Amino acid sequence: MAGEYEKAITIKDAIDAINQRDYLLPAIQRKFVWSSHQICVLFDSIMRGYPINTFMMWEIKDDSIKNDYKFYEFLKSYCQRFSEENPHVPTNASYKDFRAVIDGQQRLTSLYIGLCGTYAYKKPRVWWPSTRDDKVLPPRKLYLDLKAPLESEDDESLMYYNFKFLTDQQYQQSLASADHKHHWFCMHDLLKFSHVDGAHHVWSQVVKPYVTQHGLEDNEYSLDTLGQLYDAFRSQRVIHYFKENSQEIDHVLDVFIRTNSGGTKLDFSDLLMSIAVAHWDGDFRKELDDLTQHIHQNTEMGFYIERDWLLKTCLMLTEADVRFKVRNFKGEQVARIQQEWPDIKECITETFRLVRRFGITPQSLTSRNAVIPICYYLYKKCSAGEPLFRKINNLAKCHEQRAVISQWFYMALLKGVFGGQADSILSSMRDVLVKHLTDDTFPLPAIIKRYKATNKDLRFDEETLDKLLETQHGEGRCRALLHLLFPEMNVSEVFHIDHLHPRAAFDKKLLNKASFLQDDEHLMAFYRNPVHWNAIPNLHLLNHSQNLAKKDRPLKEWLSDQNVHLTPSDLLIENVDLEFISFKAFYLARREALKQRLISRVYMSAPLAAESVADSEDEELEEVVS
Fold first, then answer.
1. What is the DSSP string of 485-499?
2. 232, 288, 456, 521: which has the fewest Cβ within 10 Å?
3. Distance CA 464, CA 193 (A)
4. Are 428 and 435 in contact (CB under 8 A)?
5. Containing domain of residue 383, as a range?
6. By the 8 A CB rule, do 238 and 232 touch?
7. Are residue 445 and residue 567 in the same domain, yes or no?
8. Residue 142's beta-bridge partner residues?
9. CA separation for the pair 188, 172 (Å, rounded)
C-alpha cells in the first residue's frame, strides 16, 4: 500500500510542525495565490465547524530525494508581487525525515499567515512601486471582531464571523475610536495562550481573564466566540490527512496532478516550473525571480513579467515546442536552457530595454507575448558575428532594424493579434523568422504575407483606422498608436501624452459660458463629446520639458512661445486655425492628416479610393516595405 490515512491533528499541531520544519513544500508546488478574503472565509469556516477537506502529506525518507529535489519553507510574510516566494530549505542525506505537502498548501499557508504572519497587498488607486514599500503595501495581521458578528445580508460570502486583515495603523485607529464599535482580537495572540484541556479550564483560565481585562464580560457573543476560537484552533482535531509513503517521484507527481484539480486552479506552468527546478543544476527559481525583479525595478524597463512568460520564452529561444507540456521540460531540454541561460537572460533584458525605447510603458504594454518574437529575432539574428541583442540598443547603430521592429510591434499591439491562441502564433512566427534570418532587417513583409486573410491578419482597413483614431487618452493602446504615427520621436527621451487643446478648456461649466456655443446646440454637443477632445486627433507626445511648459495653456499661445521647439508641421496642423473657437475645424483637419499618416505607416487590406490617398500608392508601399 502506497499510503494511509493518519490520525487527525489540531491546527496548533500543524503550525508547530511548520515552525519546526517537519512540514515543507516540494518544488512541484506553485506559489501561494490565495487572496486575503479567501483566508478570512477559511477561518470563518473553521469557526463554524465546516469541513476544510483532507490534506495529503508525502513522507520523505529517501536520501536521494533529499539530495536531488528542492524543498521550501512556508511563507510567513506575504507581500503581493514583492514577497511571494517561499524560502529554500537546503536538504541533504543528513537532514531529518520530514513531510512534504502534496495537497493543502494554500490552506496551510493561509492558516500559518493568519496565525503567525502578515499579508500585504496594494492600497487601491495607487501605482505599483518599483521596490517593496510598506506605505503602498502595508503589512496586515488577521483580526477577529469579538464584539459582534457580521451582518450576513451585507456579506456576499455569507460569513458569520468578522475576520479582517488590518494594518497596525488601522488597529490603533480602532482602539482610539470613540464609538468602540469593534474589539479586534489579533489571531497571533491565540497561540500565546496557555495550553489547557477541557471546556471548564478554557473558560476559567483563558476566556474569563481575557474578557474581564477588556471589559467584555457582559457581552455573550464575546464569551462564546473566544471559547469557540480556542476550541476550534487549539483543541479540535480538524486537520485530516493522507500520508503518501512512496519514494517514487513519478508516482508522487501523478498523485499531485490528480489531487490538485480543485480549489484555486493549478496553473500547469507552475507544475512545469517545479519540474524544471528539479532538473536545474542550481536554483532555477531564484534565477527567474532575480531576472523578474531586475526587469521590474530597473528604471530603463519597469515591466512586471510572470514566470510562465519566462518559461515560454525559454522554450521559444531553444527551438522547443512552446506549448506547456511535461515532455518539454525533461532533463535534456532543461539542460539546454541552462546552458544558454546567460545569453537568454541578457537577450530578454535587452529586448525589454528596446521595448521601453519604443516608448511603450508598463501600463501601455497590452500584450507581453508580443515581446517574445522580438526576443527570438534578436537572439537568432547575427550582425557582424554576434547576436543582434548585443547591439540593438546602441543608438549609433541598427537604426533601420529598430524602425522596422517597432513598426511591427505597434501594429501587433494595435491589432491585438496575441490576444488568443498565443502558442499557435508564436510557433508560426518562429517559422517565418527562421526562414528570413538572412534578410537585412526584420521580415515585416513576410510576416504580413504569412497571416494575410487569417484571424491574425496584421493589415488594416479604413473602418479599423477610424476606430483607432477614436482611441481615448488613458487607453492602453493610445501610446502605441501615437508612437506609430510619430516614429521620429527621440528614443532616449521619456514622452508624456498631452492634450493639444487643453483638457481644462472642455470643462462643462466653461463651455456653458462660451458665447459662440450658446445658440448652436450641435456645436455644443461636438465640444462636449470626449470622442473629439479626449481622443487621438487632440493628443500628442511631448517630452518632459514640453509637457511642463504646456500645462493648460491655449494651443495657439503655447505654439507661439519661442521656447517651444515644435511647429504646426510637426503636429500635422499646417494651415489650420488654432483658436479654441475653431476646434471643430482643427479636429477634422488633424484627424484626416493622422489618417493619411496611418495609411503610410501600416499595411492596408484593401485598395483605398483614389481621392483618399494624398500621394501615389507606389510611393507609400515603398515607404512601408523599406
1. H-TTS-TTS-EEEEE
2. 521
3. 67
4. no
5. 267-458
6. yes
7. no
8. 165
9. 16
Per-10-residue mean pLDDT of the chain, 626 residues long, equals 77 94 84 90 92 87 82 91 87 90 90 94 80 88 92 66 92 84 92 86 86 88 90 90 76 65 50 70 84 91 89 93 76 87 96 91 87 96 91 92 92 85 89 94 94 88 91 88 80 81 93 90 94 94 81 89 86 91 94 92 66 34 27
Distance of CA 546 to the CA centre of its chain: 31
**Do 531 and 610 fall within a single domain?**
yes
Which of 582, 602, 242 lies closest to 409, judged by CA? 602
What are the cell numbers at 393? 540598443
Query: Running DSSP on this structure, what letter comes out for residue 187?
Result: G
Cell numbers at 102, concatenated = 502534496
Contacts of 390 by beta carbon, 8 Å cutoff, 6+ apart:
346, 350
Cβ atoms of 568 and 589 within 8 Å: the answer is no
Contact 6, 241 (CB under 8 A): yes
Asked if residue 255 is part of any domain, the answer here is: no
Residue 25 parent element (H or E): strand 23-26
Residue with cell 480602532: 174
C-alpha cell belonging to residue 99 = 513531510
CA atoms of 391 and 393, how far apart (whole Å): 5
Q: Cα dist. 548→134, 357, 543, 551, 565 in Å? A: 31, 21, 9, 6, 13
* pTM summary value: 0.59
Burial class (CB in 10 A: 0-12, 13-18, 19+), 51: exposed
Task: Return the pLDDT at 53.
Answer: 84
| Class of residue 296 by CB neighbours under 10 A (exposed 0-12, middle 13-18, buried 19+) | buried
User: How many helices (DSSP H) and strands (DSSP E) are in the chain?
Assistant: 26, 16
Same domain, yes or no, for 232 and 206?
yes
Pair (368, 497) in one structural domain: no
Asked if 610 and 502 sit in the same domain, the reply is yes
Nearest to 580 by CA among 538, 543, 547: 538
Q: What is the pLDDT of residue 420?
A: 67
Orientation of helix 105-116 relative to helix 11-19, angle to 10°: 90
Same domain, 530 and 620: yes
Q: Where are the alpha helices (DSSP H) in 158-203?
A: 168-176, 199-202
Q: Are 97 and 59 in contact (CB under 8 A)?
A: yes
Give the number of domains in the chain.
3
Per-residue cell: 390 = 548585443
353 neighbors 393 (Cβ within 8 angstroms): yes
Number of CB atoms found within 10 A of residue 515's CB = 7
Phi, psi angles (nearest 5°) of residue 459: -75, 155
- For residue 465, being part of any structural domain is answered with no
Coil, helix or strand for 95? coil
- Cell numbers standing for residue 42: 477559511
